[in-house]
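PT: before anyone asks, these are the final sequences, not the draft ones from last week. 599 residues across everything. Please model them as a single complex and drop the result in this thread when it's through.
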Amino acid sequence: MAAVRSFEFSRRKTNRVMGGVAGGLADTLGIPDAYVRAAFLTLLMVWGLGGVLYLGFWLMAYDKVEDRDVVAVDNGRGLGLGLAFLGLLLLLEAVGWWPNPALVLTAGALAFGTAALTDSSTPGPLAALMDPNVDRPSRLRLILGVALLFGGLSIFITSIGPVFELGVVFLAIVLTGLGIVVGFGPWVRRLIVDLGTERNERIRQEERAEMATHLHDSVLQTLALIQRTDDPARMAILARHQETELRDWLFGAAPLDGVDLVSTALRNAAARVEKDHQVPIDVVTVGDHLLDKESAPLIGAASEAMVNAAKHSGADRLSLYLEAEDEKLTVYVTDQGKGFDLDKVAPDRKGIAESIKSRVENAGGTVEINSEPGDGTEVVMRMPVESG
Amino acid sequence: MSITVYLVDDHRLFLSGVKAELADEFRIVGSAFDVDTAIVEIRGLNPDVVLVDVHMPDGGGIAVIEGVSESNPDVRFLALSVSDQAEDVIAMIRAGARGYVTKTIEPPDLADAVRRISTGDAVFSPRLAGFVLDAFAGAIPSEEDPELDQLTLREKDVLRLIARGFAYKQVARKLEISIKTVETHVSSVLRKLQLSNRHELARWASKRHIV
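LR: through. Structure below.
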């Protein structure tokens, strides 16, 4: 993204000749200022175009006038800009906007020649040719620069000779296009790569955020609860509950995303009772059914039966068993606790039994309570459902 | 002579806990945290019963059973885990385990299960009973050996009661049969579970590459 913004250049405040426009452009493009000045100078010869451009850039420049760090010179881009510039010159010439070819070319050659010689960011031409320690890009740059110069000169020569104008226009276009590809290709590619990297990074961050949220809501909360508990039984249940939940989340135990099933609802209900009343509950389900208007009352009734057993049976664990058949669902809540005599129930417990009954019976099902003192209790809830 | 027991579980804390619980009644001859060590040691020690965790790195409990069953056919396996997928547990049984219990089992019940396994009986926890009922549910396929591919009504009754949390003794009383008969039914279910070609079982098994 930084690469795009780099075209919003600002003027230089120090180390400038006039308004700091050429310097600012050079900083933005990452090429030595000498070449930018040479370009302006050359274009100045084309009916003062350089001056117009200079003023235009000045107006476009951001008001923020400051010293910038010198951007590292990118050889490919510098070369591309040079080619594009040369192409532009040729195009101007070809369409006849070039009043005095000799003047322009002489100015250009002088300006760029001086620029090449005074450019402090790369080794001088002699050093580049002779010194074995000079890096390859610099050497290549010099060779390409020389080749360009020769190319430009030969075009100049052919253009004043009897050559088809069309050929020159074609060459100018090719040259400009080539310049753009060479100069901006790597930059565009990097832009695309940057965008891809940024996208991946964003996805990763979202995943991380989701995981952090989940762990915070579940594991951290449970750990906090455990730290505040000194009852080993409660700790064990909290840990067990959390383990089941984490496992489901990690390995995706929920069979259908977004679809609620009776088995899942019963499991959740059992987990809640387990947590609130500190009694482990073994949940076993055979078959399954969608959680709908018909089956939903079973969940509430089963919860109540579990709470009741947890509170009153004295059993150290409970069993919840669901069997889903085509036409009916059956839920058993079983404990091995002290049981009770159905005819001599305390009024409050009777109330609970009645509440379980009415929930299920109002929805069209039946409830059966089997219990004997000393022999545990079983609440059986049956609910007819439409098949499927 | 007391029953010799070997333990395999990659959770060390759990392993030491179980060791302490069983040490009074059984002779714990060894234990391992990983599959490879377990196979080598079980081959050498030839214990009566091996308690093996379903989920472990490097192939899990199935790899242990498969690595030992040929060289030591008398070793009996009891699968043990927290709360696994039905197919993993069924696959353990098909590989040769004679029972499956969850790790939340009470110590006396675990000791009971080890004793039962050592005499060649099968141990069905409520969860395993539920898995089996699920696996054998639905229409009966018309296979060459229909006897193996379905459960009898009595076997289903027994499994349902086990799934509801009743012990063998209570199951026997409720159905008005002897404990021995309950054990026979359960063993018969185990055999069907291991040998049946029922579509669901075959699918589970092939998914785990054990057929």
